[in-house]
Each structure stands twice: as structure tokens, then as C-alpha cells.
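Dear support,

I submitted the protein below through the web form. The confirmation email said the job was done, but the results page showed an empty box. After a refresh the structure appeared. I'm attaching both so you can tell me whether what I see now is the final result or a partial one.
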Amino acid sequence: MLDTFLISFRLKNTYRVNSIIYMFKQIPIIRRVLPMSLYKNQSLKIFVTILNTIWEIISVFLGKIIYFAIMFIIPLNFMNVFNFRAMLQLLFFLSLGGAFFNTGMFDPSKDKYYAVILMKMDGREFVLSQYLYTLFRHYVGYMTAFMILSFTLQYPFWLSYILPLFIIGLKLMAVSAYLKDFKRNRKVRSENNNSPAIIGFSIGCLLVGYALIFSNLIIPIKMMLIVLIILSILAVILMSYVLKYDDYHQLSHKLLKNIDSLLNTDTQDIINDSYHKMITLEADTKSNKTGFEYFNELFMQRHKKILWKTAKRQTYMIAFIIVLIIGILFYDVETQKDANNAMTSILPFFVFIMYLLNTAKNITQAMFVNCDHSMLTYSFYRIPKNILILFKIRLREIVKINLLPAVVLALGYMAILFICGGIDQAFLAFISFISIISMSIFFSTHYLILYYLLQPYNAHTEVKSPIYSTIISLTYIICYAFTKLELPILSFGIVCILFCIGYCVIACILVLKWAGNTFKIRN
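What the results page shows now:
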């Protein structure tokens, strides 16, 4: 079994090395320097193996620390119940839901397909070695997190070794139930396609866990410890069942039966099909416009379900939240002063909100799938003058779509400022309104210019530009950083407005100068 695990590790490492090389070879400047022989370079593979091993070790601890920070420390501190009893109770419900939702065994991954189907490795040894390694990672990661928490929550240090066994016991309980179900019904579940019952059960555990603590209903510590001890003993018993299970080979083949088509039919194809189903084909579509204006109007009318659906939902949700906040402010007048102090300094936070609301990235994807994918094969479509004309038209339409929720949000912000601060806040309310609108226009421009200057999609509508993916990630990081800032409306608002205007002007210049060379289908 150890040999099988080492082979699978080398297989996964080779796959990652080749993926990294492929990613770098997609960068225009670097790909000319990198030779094809790099794929068989042993020194590079050794270097990446070392990095991969380091990352495996770091991820064991980092993942669990982030998990506890987001799911336990922050919410429990927010509810002012950050203690051992509350943490233990929440741990039980979250682990119970997670055990059935994410078992770690029934994931039809590429490395399983390569090992079991293509390389004909023994299904039992491969699945067991991978699963035992997964459990080991869980144990070490949880143990480390519990050790760190023991200094804050003041519980016995030895519990750090026992508590991970309880979580593993729940996971083994779920896996054993699924294995027995497969032996009885010959139906295998896939973690890529959990049933509605499993999803509902997991969400239910999540909600019940937080709701009980929020309602100050804490299960007695003795009862919780008895449950933990029982589950820890159960872990030992069920481990024996998992190790002796004799149907892993058949289970692997059934789990991976359709993955060949999934590997060749990318998930992007499913997205494309969903786009095509939402197209409205109206033979009697009429318009007085000509040229690219007429071309764009046809696209907008046929794809209005895709383009406007999300924006309308966001608008309804924002309007409901604003009405609710205004109702609270009128009901509890004493909160108006605190709300006014907060509203005059949290405008930078709306950068992140507008980032989340903006749908320009999805719109550009729809444009490629249902329009540019075909039109880019024509040379007239790539003439710089025509590109700039269509860019301006599309920018106008994308801005209109995203302005729908943005205007409602900006009006709500103004209304709350007026309610809390009176007519004295009129100028600040005006600046905040223009700032939020500017943010919406900025993100609409930002995603469209990335689409035109980097055009990340290939003929199969897959993202093949590492630069595009990197900039998208950096955009998220920068926008999230704004949530940590508290700046006056006047100074931040004016800078925000000027920056957005400058960005839009520069965007048009760059598109005119460079898009003729960059706006094309990737190989």
C-alpha cells in the first residue's frame, strides 16, 4: 500500500509540474524562452517536488487554522460566547454536516482516473492509501488547531489529541454508511454531485449549530464529552470495517465510469449549454439602428435573460435590505447617531460591495460564448477602429445593466445619511451617490478592458490566460483590503470619482492601441 501511495504522489506531482510549465508557456514573453524539452527536465521536476512537499505540509495546518478562524473564532466572538462549551457544541454540528458532505473518498478526481483507469492500479490499494493519508492530514491539522485554541479557551491540553478522533469518527461513520449502501444497492455517490438530501442535511446542521448558540442554548459539557468519547471509540471500530471492505475496485470503476467524458467535456461546456438555453430567438426582432449598433441590439435582446436576471435580483435584495434598515432607524431613534458616525466613514467598504455586485465578468463570458467565439474568425471584426466602436457600445450596455442595483444602493445610502444626519449631510450624500455610481462604472470598464486586452478564452471557451486569472485574483484582494479602511466621505469620494474617470479614458486609449493584436481566440 505504501508503494501505491508513493506512485500516486509522483503521479500527482508530474501532473502539477506539467500544468505549471503549461501555465508559463501561455505568457507571451516567457513562452518564447521556454523550450518544449522543459517537460522532461529532471531538475525542474525535483524542484517542483520539493515545493509540492512543502505546500502539502503547510496546507495541512493552514487550512484548518483558516477554517477555525472563519467558522468558530469570528462568529463566536461576534456572539460574545467564545468559550470551550460553545466551541465544542458548534464543532459537533459542523463536523456532522461536513462528514456526509465531504467524505474525502468519493471524489472522482483526475489523479484517481489516471491511476485506476489508465494505469490499471489496484483500486482497493489506491483508494485506501489516499483515504488514510486524508485522515492523517485531518488528524494532524485539527490537532494543531486544538493545541493553539487550548491556550485561549483554557481546556486540558490532552483533549487536543482526542478531539480530532471524534471528527474522524464522524467521517468514518459517513463513509461506512456510503460503502454499505454501495454493497447493497450498487449505487455510488459522487462528491461532485451531492444529493439534495445531503446538501439540505449539511446546511441544516450548519444553521442549527449557530442558531442554538445564538439563542444561548448550550448542551451540558458532560453530555457533549460522552458523545465525543462514543464517537472516538466508534472511529476505531469503523476503521476496521473500512480497512476490511472488499469492494473498492468495483466502487472505483463505477465512480470513475463517466469521468472520461467529463475530462473531455469540460464543465465550461455545461455553462455554454446553459447560456444557449437562455437565448431568446425572436424572428420578428425589429430595429431602426444600423451597423454595430444593430448588431449589439440583437445580442442584447436575445440574451436579456442572461444579462438582466442577476441585476434585477440584486436590486430587489438591496431594496429590501435598505427598507429594513430605514425601518429599524425610525423604530429605534437612538441608533441614528451611531449609524451616522458609521455611514460617514464606511464608504471605502462599498468598493468591495460593488465588486461583488458587478456582473461584467459574466457578461463578457456570455459575449464570447454566444457571439465573439464565432465573429473573431472574421478579419473585419478585429480592425482596431471597429473594435473601439463595439467596445464603447458594449461598455455603455454593461454600465446600464450594473447601474440598476448601483443606483438603488446609492439612493439607499443617501437616504440613510439624510435620516441620520439631516439636511446638513446633503453635500456628503451627493458625493457618496456619485462615488458609488463611479465604482459601478469602474468595475464594468475594468472587466471589459481585461476581456479586450487579454481575451482569456480559447476555442473551447476555457480560460487559458494566467495573466487574466492573476489580475482577477489581485482585483479581489485589493477590493477586500478596502473593507479595512475607514476614510471620510469627502476625501475618499472625490479621489474615487477622479480615478474612475481617468481609468475609463485610459481604457479607451489602450483598447484603440492594443486590442487589434490582443482581441483574438487563444490557441
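Response: this is the final, complete result; the empty box was a page-load delay. Residues 61-245 form one domain.
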